[in-house]
Specification:
heterodimer, A: alpha/beta, Peroxisomal Thiolase, Chain A, domain 1, 13 helices, 15 strands, 19% strand, B: Non-ribosomal Peptide Synthetase Peptidyl Carrier Protein, Chain A, 3 helices, 0% strand, PP-bd_ACP (chain B), Acyl carrier protein (chain B), ACP-like_sf (chain B), transmembrane helix (chain A)
């Protein structure tokens, strides 16, 4: 079987520009959650806090002609991708690699800000004209398309949509193509920004959003905190990476996916456990070999105990020795980009032998009874890690990563 | 005479739970009535639309508390709305 490795990563998040500031914040348990910067300061919102980009100036990255084509999701995704490609040092122009490189980018809702701007013109101002580039800004495949254009990669390219599991599903689609021999390299990841007024109102109406901060797995948790951001990775076959002498960050050892086929929003321990088990089987990992799980850990009343039960179901007695943390207390819940931001935590744990903590943790909840690495990072060598993503709609996608030394 | 707040709230709960309105008592919880959490947030939404109020996020705990708790929260929100009626500039 063709093995798959990660050779480049890039990110943009509330923690700053780049994968490194994000990893540092996750490692330090330093929360980037702050008072919400509202899209409409006159509107009274129940949502009080969020994890939004603070120092992102699109005009520093794109000229005006290019900017006109891009929703915020496309902008963020391109910036993250440039970082990932630069780190990988990969030249798509060599030896026909461009045609053998896939681009798969996940997003939960696509170009929400672009859609909202035009919606406001139509409904709010009664305008009969909307911007002619509205469609190309808001289509959910736009980020994948812009990456293919930016880097001139001509292999299979498309968007992937599975709400909060979009990033992990995107990584898996590309990984399956790499394994099958369809491609030799891939640009993968996720991007999301849905801080429009209707978007915020819709999240408020679901009553799953915390008004204080995000406190995964602890007794005082009050829900998720909405975030924006993007993460992009360069995947290659091990053979391809070795042939060009690339620095390997980690091996993508396996993956698992499942559908709860039950409730549209209430999570299922069985569905999550099925995806976790599938990832272990696919990677050829025994449960005992896994040392750390970057949990989905949204801090909603429903997710955290359900995910805890799923982990216990799969790992049995080893669950007692397993470190599990959610980094969402640091970077918030970036929905379709969540898995991409959290993959940086999984890679960081493997590379630096440091397990990032669950930030903002107060008191233990009896329904959440695993080792969540509360508040302080732990120096611990682990050889294999999992990254969980579970979505509304009952869609689950789990990645298994392994240290790559040979 | 207008229906009481309690009668109106119970009617909304009964419609969503597909139960007879007589089955809803002040002590019933949404769980007793077999109402799932997604339906619970729809009930809150309908109550907000019906009374033109905004309900707090987690007080009461709509999944676990009784129908009486919901009625109390609606009455509180209605009182707050009356107090705030002079503040005509406020947006919902």
């Amino acid at each position: 079987m063709r093995r798959i490795v990660i050779t480049g990563m890039g990110a943009i998040s509330a923690c700053g520009m780049g994968a490194e500031p994000l990893w540092q914040a996750m490692r330090d348990g330093r929360s980037a959650i702050a008072p919400l910067v509202s899209p409409d300061p006159a509107a009274q919102l129940r949502m009080k806090v969020a994890a939004q980009l603070r120092d992102f100036d699109p005009t520093a990255h794109f000229d005006s002609a290019r900017l006109g084509l891009l929703d915020r999701t496309g902008q963020m995704c391109l910036v993250a991708a440039r970082e990932a490609v630069a780190q990988a040092g990969i030249d798509f122009g060599r030896d026909g690699l461009a045609a053998r490189t896939a681009t798969v980018i996940g997003t939960g809702v696509g170009g929400e800000i672009a859609r909202d701007e035009q919606g406001r013109k139509v409904h709010g101002e009664g305008s009969s004209r909307v911007h002619p580039l509205s469609i190309v800004r808001m289509m959910p495949n736009a980020p994948a398309s812009h990456l293919s254009i930016e880097f001139g990669v001509t292999g299979p390219a498309f968007g992937v949509v599975s709400a909060c599991a979009s990033s992990n599903h995107a990584v898996i689609q590309a990984a399956a193509m790499l394994r099958s021999g369809l491609v030799d390299a891939a640009l993968v990841g996720g991007t999301e920004s849905c801080f429009s007024l209707p978007g915020l109102r819709a999240w408020e109406a679901m009553r799953v959003v915390a008004d204080d901060t995000c406190r995964p797995f602890c007794k005082q948790r009050r829900g998720m905190v909405l975030a924006e951001g993007a993460g992009v990775f360069v995947l290659e076959t091990l053979e391809h990476a070795r042939a060009r002498g690339a620095t390997i960050l980690a091996e993508l050892a396996g993956f698992g996916m499942s559908a709860d086929a039950g409730d549209i929003v209430a999570p299922s321990a069985d569905g999550a456990a099925q995806a976790i088990r599938a990832a272990l089987d696919d990677a050829g990992l025994a449960p005992e070999q896994v040392g750390y799980i970057n949990a989905h850990g949204t801090a909603t009343p429903a997710n955290d105990p359900t995910e805890t039960r799923a982990i216990r179901q799969v790992f049995g007695a080893h669950a007692e020795r397993l470190a599990v943390s959610s980094t969402k207390g640091v970077h918030g819940h970036a929905l379709g980009a969540a898995g991409a931001l959290e993959l940086i935590a999984a890679i960081g744990a493997l590379r630096e032998d440091i397990l990032p903590p669950t930030a903002n943790f107060l008191d233990a909840d009896p329904a959440c009874d695993l080792d969540y690495v509360p508040n302080t990072a732990r120096a611990q060598r682990v050889d294999a890690v999992l990254s969980n993503s579970f979505a509304f709609g009952g869609l689950n996608a789990v990645l298994a990563l392994r240290r790559c030394e040979d | 005479m207008n229906a009481s707040v309690q009668e109106q709230v119970f009617k909304i709960i009964a419609e969503h739970g597909k139960v007879d309105v007589d089955q809803v008592t002040p002590e019933s919880t949404l769980k007793d009535l077999n109402i799932a959490s997604l339906e619970a947030i729809e009930i809150i939404f309908d109550i907000e639309e019906h009374f033109d109020i905004n309900m707090p996020d987690r007080d009461p705990d709509f999944d676990a508390d009784s129908a009486k708790g919901l009625v109390d929260a609606v009455e509180e929100a209605l009182a707050a709305k009356q107090d705030g009626a002079a503040d005509a500039g406020a947006k919902a």
